[in-house]
Amino acid sequence: MCDVLDRIEQKGRQEGELEGKKEMAVSLARMGISIEDIAKAAKVSVNEVKQWLALDRSLVK
After folding, report:
1. How many angstroms separate the CA atoms of 5 and 17, rounded?
2. What are phi and psi of 49, to 5 degrees?
3. CB 7 within 8 A of CB 28
4. Cα 34 to Cα 50: distance, rounded to the nearest angstrom
5. What Gene3D superfamilies does the record point to (predicted)?
6. How buried is 52 (Cβ within 10 angstroms: 0-12 exposed, 13-18 middle, 19+ buried)?
């Protein structure tokens, strides 16, 4: 039972961390930061950042 709760808690933390990175990526893109630099700051791939920003076409260069 404890293992299940630990896994659920860890998954929730990971999802929250990812959501924070997405919000940061959008914010940095609006400031004019390059996708490559955003990817470095978020420690994710350039393609992942592009996917996040694709929801707002004005942010993808």
Report:
1. 18
2. -65, -45
3. no
4. 11
5. Homeodomain-like
6. buried
